[in-house]
Design goal:
The protein has 25 helices and 27 strands. The protein is α+β, with helices and mostly antiparallel strands. It has four domains: 135 residues, Dynein light chain 2a, cytoplasmic (Beta-Lactamase, 2-Layer Sandwich), CATH 3.30.450; 131 residues, Beta-Lactamase; 141 residues, Alpha-Beta Plaits (2-Layer Sandwich), CATH 3.30.70.270; 254 residues, EAL domain (TIM Barrel). Strands 18-19-21-22-23-24-25-26 form an eight-stranded mixed beta barrel, surrounded by five helices.
């Protein structure tokens, strides 16, 4: 009957009955036939009983067969004078024992036993057929095992590769899959990934037969050293006596992890118990494939210079940390900015700046609390999420600033000191998200810069400066979207002449409005701070000038007939744009509008801050025929020293003086002095924030030429003003009774 061993090899020993019949036909006295493998395990028998003395005889015979590779077998006599012929079947190539064929024969009547050589000669043809059959089946078994192993290898590779499309930045999960599948598919007690420069240590142990917890600590230094000089996988199935690893009851397979440039960055190591199967070349090749995969994951998730996470991986890791945090347990977000790194790059070279970044990142990484997540999110900026309250995070950030001040990047004999500005904001899981909290931390970071740098500031809702910055961050994003989506609108506010002189044509100031996502109209007080802070004004100025001139162009004839002047603002940031002045002059010349109907306003502070550029552009505008107004005049006394050299045609008196003119004698005196100064310099004056008739009458008495404010007229859409310009001017409040002159014939 067949006696299977394990399921994997049962087929090789099945269906041997035809060979047993062949043996019996050649040796009629054979009473029982059994087949044993090279380890003396019974694989097949035609007898229902296998006596213990038979098994013992086969064990001894198998041991002797290994020692004598030339002999074909031997004869043994069992109890009761029963002859047992043990035939050894071998592999032709290796001469290794394949099987032991045990043949029991009935005792002869005369008690004589036939010699082994005689019996072997009789049944040799049957034994040769059986040997070839077993060899063929053995080859098939090896092929099956090889294919099965390759299938398992493919399953492992596919299991790892299937993580590629899981979640962007989910590097930790993908690396865990590599380790878990390595333990399962390769039968390891321990699998580990170590990348020292990135403080990355990941490992997984077998659930059934875990390794000693101290194993990794005992071997990782030597494996890392070997990985520095060895590219190919390292197999250590037998540790040499007195090796650097000491005496370890484990087998080790180690592969070097290398970056895209081929530089070693760490190791991928597999461990098996001493009693387990040896690591082989196939498994080494598979481990090498997995090591390359792990290197690719690490490269795509970590910043090459600092070893910290990149932004995409940071957002995923941080999201996992936030999702796993217990309800009500706070986290804190740190926004870290390296102060004035561009000066280090310019003065000492980019390589010194890179060295400084690496040193600072290493300092932060070494001091991270457990479970914290840190990343380099842009050139000189870092983001960190740490468990714990705001106070602890602020203390950590302060210690980083103190340590950074002691670090220095060295170039020759010069030293550049490092400095950090850090903002800290509290994140309560389930309350606000990471993006919102990171923006709050960035706001606090900018406040730290404003307050002297190399310091940490916490985001506080009561801190007006911090809140303003935080609001600007939010508004800046909305403003960019509004510009891109053309959700800006131009309004016009009437500026009233305060006497009937012909040289006092009616004026309008063109004002900007933003339409938010919900369709609400926002005034410039809501978004200009953000536009200035985030350098958006040049883009906005260009939009305003292009749109205003485009809207005025179809009404050029009517504007010329009424003599109306439209004042358009631009910012000091645009003065710093080398191409802005030429673009502005070119647009005016191509607009088809008389330059005398255009006036361009620039604030006093922006003019003084960019005096040379401002003067040059003002002269070009005046030469073209345009008016030039100095807005918010009176807020910077230093401007008086430069007023004589600036070709200004209009001074707009700051509204803070005008608003208090009836109750503050000093404001009244200042307004009167500015009006007299302007008249002596042949400039006209405009009083802003004229909110009552009493203020309007008072400034007229003081010699101011124009009034602008809610008592004169509120801003209305520029399109509405242009559609009915003559009617608007006719309805406008005027101190003098002169009617608006009718339009010239043919003008609409």
């Amino acid at each position: 009957m067949p006696v299977p061993a394990d399921n994997a090899r049962a087929d090789r020993w099945a269906s041997l009955e035809p060979y047993a019949q062949l043996v019996r036909s050649l040796l009629p006295r054979a009473s029982g036939i059994a087949v044993f493998d090279s380890a003396a395990n019974l694989r097949w028998s035609n007898d229902t009983a296998v006596w213990p003395d038979l098994v013992h005889a086969v064990e001894q015979s198998a041991a002797e067969a290994s020692a004598d590779s030339a002999a074909p077998g031997q004869l043994r006599v069992l109890e009761g004078n029963v002859p047992l012929y043990l035939c050894w079947l071998r592999d032709d190539t290796t001469q290794q024992l394949l099987a032991v064929i045990a043949i029991q024969c009935r005792a002869s009547s005369d008690g004589e036993q036939r010699s082994f050589s005689f019996v072997h000669a009789l049944i040799r043809p049957a034994l040769e057929c059986l040997r070839r059959e077993l060899l063929a089946r053995h080859s098939l078994d090896l092929l099956t095992e090889n294919l099965s192993a390759r299938d398992r290898d493919l399953e492992l590779v596919l299991a790892v590769s299937s993580r590629d499309g899981a979640r962007p930045g989910d590097d930790a999960s993908a690396l865990r899959v590599i380790l878990e599948n390595s333990v399962e598919h390769l039968g390891c007690a321990l699998a580990a990934l170590l990348v020292p420069d990135k403080s990355l240590v990941l490992f997984r142990m077998s659930r059934e037969q875990p390794a000693d917890g101290r194993l990794l600590a005992q071997t990782h230094r030597h494996l890392l050293s070997l990985g520095q000089v060895r590219r190919e996988p390292l197999i250590m199935n037998r540790l040499a006596q007195g090796s650097a690893f000491g005496t370890l009851p484990y087998k080790i397979l180690s592969c070097s992890l290398r970056n895209a440039a081929g530089r070693p960055i760490g190791i991928f190591a597999l461990y098996r118990h001493e009693a387990a199967a040896d690591f082989n070349d196939r498994e080494a090749r598979l481990a090498e494939v997995l090591a390359r995969k792990a290197s690719m994951i690490i490269e795509s998730s970590y910043d090459a210079m600092t070893g910290l996470l990149n932004r995409q991986a940071f957002e995923q890791r941080a999201a996992d940390l936030i999702a796993g945090a217990a309800a009500g347990k706070p986290l804190a977000v740190l926004y870290v900015d390296v102060d004035q790194l561009h000066l280090v790059n310019e003065n000492f070279g980019m390589h010194v700046g890179d060295l400084m970044l690496s040193m600072l990142a290493d300092m932060m990484r070494r001091r991270l609390p457990p479970a914290a997540v840190a990343a380099r999110i842009s050139g000189d900026r870092f983001a960190v999420v740490v468990p714990g309250p705001l106070e602890a995070a602020l203390e950590l950030a302060t210690s980083w600033c103190e340590t950074a001040a002691q670090l220095a990047a060295v170039q020759g004999d010069e030293r550049s000191r490092a400095s950090l500005s850090i903002g800290v904001a509290e994140l309560v899981p389930g309350d606000v998200g990471l993006t919102h909290t990171l923006a709050a931390a960035e706001t606090a970071c900018k406040a730290a810069k404003d307050r002297g740098r190399n310091r940490a500031e916490a985001y506080q809702a009561a801190d007006e400066s911090v809140v303003r910055r935080f609001t600007d961050i939010t508004i800046a994003a909305s403003l960019r979207a509004a510009v891109a989506d053309d959700r800006l609108r131009l309004d016009a506010q009437f500026i009233q002449p305060l006497d009937a002189a012909p040289s006092r044509p009616p004026h309008f100031e063109v004002l900007l409005r933003m339409i938010d996502d919900e369709g609400r109209t926002l005034g410039p007080d809501r978004f200009l701070s953000a536009a200035n802070r985030y350098q958006l004004m040049p883009t906005i100025d260009r939009w305003v000038i292009e749109r205003a001139l485009g809207m005025l162009r179809p009404h050029a004839g009517l504007i010329d007939a009424t003599g109306a002047v439209f004042a358009i603002n631009f910012s000091g940031q645009s003065l710093n744009d080398a191409e802005f002045a030429d673009e502005l002059i070119a647009r005016i010349e191509a607009s088809g509008i008389g330059p005398q109907h255009l006036c361009f306003e620039l604030t006093e502070s922006a003019t003084i801050a960019n005096l040379a550029r401002a003067e040059l552009l003002m002269r070009r505008l005046r030469k073209l025929g345009c008016g030039v107004a100095l807005d918010d005049f009176g807020t910077g006394l230093s401007s008086l020293a430069y007023l004589r050299q600036l070709p200004v045609s209009m001074l707009k008196i700051d509204g803070s003086f005008v608003r208090d003119i009836l109750r503050d004698a000093r404001s009244e005196s200042l307004v009167q002095a500015i009006a007299q100064l302007a008249r002596s310099m042949q400039m006209v004056t405009v009083a802003e924030y004229v909110e009552t008739d009493a203020i309007r009458e008072r400034i007229a008495a003081l010699g101011v030429d124009y009034a602008q404010g809610f008592s004169i007229g509120r801003p209305v859409p520029l399109a509405d003003v242009l559609a009915d310009l003559q009617g608007v001017l006719a309805r406008a409040p005027r101190i003098f009774p002169d009617p608006v002159p009718p339009p010239a014939p043919g003008l609409h």
